[in-house]
Amino acid sequence: GAVVSQHPSWVICKSGTSVKIECRSLDFQATTMFWYRQFPKQSLMLMATSNEGSKATYEQGVEKDKFLINHASLTLSTLTVTSAHPEDSSFYICSASGTGGNYGYTFGSGTRLTVV
Amino acid sequence: RKEVEQDPGPFNVPEGATVAFNCTYSNSASQSFFWYRQDCRKEPKLLMSVYSSGNEDGRFTAQLNRASQYISLLIRDSKLSDSATYLCVVTGDSGYALNFGKGTSLLVTP
């Protein structure tokens, strides 16, 4: 079945540094990548949607200059948290959709980010 | 009003019990509906899609009522391994992005 590999699984970084999270689709072409964030005891909140080769569309309240999304190929999308602060500590997870649109969402295993 | 609302629980049930979860959604234009399961600190995993006619997969039965904008999940003969958080998920206006409820926590005890 479809697999999305997400790295790193967890990361601890210092305040003010940047962290890059990668999601790779291993056996299908991810035309659309969704990036979510989940705080403890909260639902997954969509941060942005990116289509390969296009600029990402960010949800209201998500700073595009802080959360940089790159989806330059059909198998790789990255999320960079720039100038991270403790309030950015969260569980970040990607979900890829292949050709055909709104079916077949495949989730990465998530990245637990802790900013100290 | 949140787009997808669920009772957070927790639901504590003994093994073998039947348990039902409910969910309501606010966007009448939503097209696709799902139940996902999420274990602690893990990614969500698709449990089943939900169709208007209702559908069953083993011990799991899902129902959709579009008029009431209401979705349900019934788990029969609960197993210890069913302990998890169950997420009600609905597609939004674009038809692509998933909107997640906060989830309902289930704990099945021996």
- Helical fraction of chain A equals under 10%
Q: Kindly report the average pLDDT value of chain B.
A: 91
What percent of residues of chain B are in strands? over 45%
DSSP summary, beta strand count of chain B: 11
Question: Using only CA atoms, what is the Rg of chain A?
Answer: 13 Å
**Tally of extended strands of chain A?**
11
Oligomeric state, counting identical vs distinct chains = heterodimer
> Tell me, what's the shape of chain B?
globular
Proportion of beta-strand residues of chain A = over 45%
User: How much helix is in the residues of chain B?
Assistant: under 10%
Largest sheet of chain B: 6 strands, mixed
Compact description:
Chain A has strands spanning 4-7, 10-13, 19-25, 32-38, 45-51, 57-58, 67-73, 76-81, 90-97, 105-107, 111-115.
State the main characteristics.
heterodimer; A: 116 residues; mainly beta; seven-stranded mixed beta sheet; four-stranded antiparallel beta sheet; 11 strands; B: 110 residues; six-stranded mixed beta sheet; five-stranded antiparallel beta sheet; 0% helix; globular
